[in-house]
From TrEMBL:
TPR repeats lie at residues 345-378. The keyword Amino-acid biosynthesis does not apply. Residues 1-240 form the CheR-type methyltransferase domain. This is Tetratricopeptide repeat protein. Keywords: Methyltransferase, Repeat, S-adenosyl-L-methionine, TPR repeat, Transferase. Residues 284-306 are annotated as: Disordered. The keyword S-adenosyl-L-methionine applies. It comes from the Bacteria.
Length: 413
């Protein structure tokens, strides 16, 4: 039953049905069929051919977006750091241009804005474009109203700064909302954003995992075209190998999943983000000196030699190799660490990331589970395993893991 619907979804949005599972597609088709034609599958298929609105409704039923504010927070820290440096280079020549595609219900592009505001970047120094294939999601995004599921983890101070609270929801501030320009578009459509200049920063995360290899290669060319030669492209953790194979290079900022064109910014170092200035501490008013008594001579203590933890050194090397895209070397370092020190949640997590980045989903699943066996509340392993399960269509299991990560509780995998 799903074969012809699978072809339609492939033609419309490039979806590889195997990435979400035939059961997910069949369930979505049945739900729409029951609602539109009272269960008459032949009539529903005919209606689907004639109605663009219904084709989009079917897409929305199949692709259930899973997103929240500041998902993969290291990416937004990297964005803020690079944006500060880029503006220094531009010296007021033009504002920064940023793109979120697909933007879903708006959590990602609004996070981009909040990250720049919190870094002290003025509102006239940048603009964010946000594109999605779903008009329904764009409508939700433009309203800027969000419930609890959009706020996860325990780092929620941004909500006090940028939202106003209602009875059961939070409304994003007009200042943040005004910096995002939403539009409907398909990344695979001919001439996608052809009239727009390339962007300094592009976020296209956890989309490519839903495509077959041919469509992935096509999409990579589009997002590379949309990214300036000196710009930065942020992708999902399981998509790194696609960009590396296409000649892009990791930015080298840990767990940011950020890439640049090969040769861009060679040998350049980036300054740390600007910090809030703190007034100097003034000394207390001087008092009249008290009568001094003789005291034994003070002997300066001999400084203890600094001890370098070899296990931390090894973990840092694994992280550095992985972030450079040197996956074979990183994997060898992981195996050497395990042989020398025994099981380690941190190393199993890195092995999961390495396999994820190389498209080895089964191995990644195994390593993430090993990490969680040793450290059941390992938040990053929980989130990455959730993303992997979601990409395979196991949405319910993915949701349970994400809830665990958000609560920081221990439970079964």
């Amino acid at each position: 039953m799903t074969e012809r619907f699978a072809r339609l979804l492939k033609e419309r949005i490039g979806l590889d049905v195997a990435s979400v599972g035939e059961t997910v597609v069949a369930r979505a088709v049945r739900q729409r069929c029951d609602k539109v034609t009272a269960g008459d599958m032949h009539a529903y298929w005919e209606h689907l051919q004639a109605s663009d609105v219904e084709r989009q409704a079917l897409v929305d039923a199949v692709i259930v977006p899973e997103t929240w504010f500041f998902r993969y927070p290291e990416s937004f820290a990297a964005l803020a750091r690079k944006a500060v440096s880029r503006l220094q280079e531009l010296a007021g020549a033009r504002p920064l241009r940023m793109l979120s595609v697909p933007c879903s219900s708006g959590e990602e592009p609004y996070s981009m804005v909040m990250a720049l505001f919190d870094a002290g970047i003025p509102e006239d120094a940048f603009q964010v474009d946000a594109v999605d294939v779903s008009p329904a999601l764009l409508e939700r995004a433009e309203q800027g109203r969000y419930r609890r599921n959009s706020f996860r983890g325990d780092q929620l101070a941004f909500r006090q700064r940028h939202f106003s609270a209602g009875e059961q929801e939070w409304r994003i501030s007009d200042a943040v909302r005004g910096k995002v320009r939403f539009s409907c578009g398909n990344l695979l459509a001919p001439g996608m954003l052809a009239g727009e200049a390339a962007y300094d920063f592009v976020f296209c995360r956890n989309l490519l995992i839903y495509f077959d290899r041919t469509t992935q290669e096509q999409a990579v060319q589009v997002i590379k075209r949309l990214t300036r030669d000196d710009g930065v492209l942020f992708i999902g953790p399981a998509e790194a190998c696609l960009l590396i194979n296409d000649g892009m290079r990791p930015l080298g900022m840990e767990q940011s999943f950020a890439f640049r064109h090969k040769g861009a910014d060679e040998g350049k170092t980036w300054p740390a983000p600007a910090r809030i200035s703190v007034p100097p501490i003034r000394p207390a008013p001087a008092k009249a000196p008290a009568e001094r008594k003789s005291a034994p001579p003070v002997v300066a203590p001999v400084p203890k030699p600094q001890v370098v933890d070899p296990t931390q050194q090894s973990l840092a090397q694994i992280a550095e190799l992985s972030n450079r895209g040197q996956f074979a070397e990183a994997r060898r370092s992981c195996m050497a660490y395990l042989a020398a020190h025994g099981p380690s949640a941190a190393v199993y997590y890195w092995l999961g990331l390495i396999c994820d980045a190389q498209g080895q989903g089964d191995e990644a699943h195994t390593f993430y589970r090993k990490a969680l066996y040793l450290q059941p509340n390992h938040q990053e392993a929980l989130l990455h395993l959730a993303a992997l399960l979601a990409s395979r269509g196991d949405v319910e299991a993915a949701r349970r893991l994400e809830e665990r990560a958000a609560r920081g509780v221990i439970g079964d995998v």
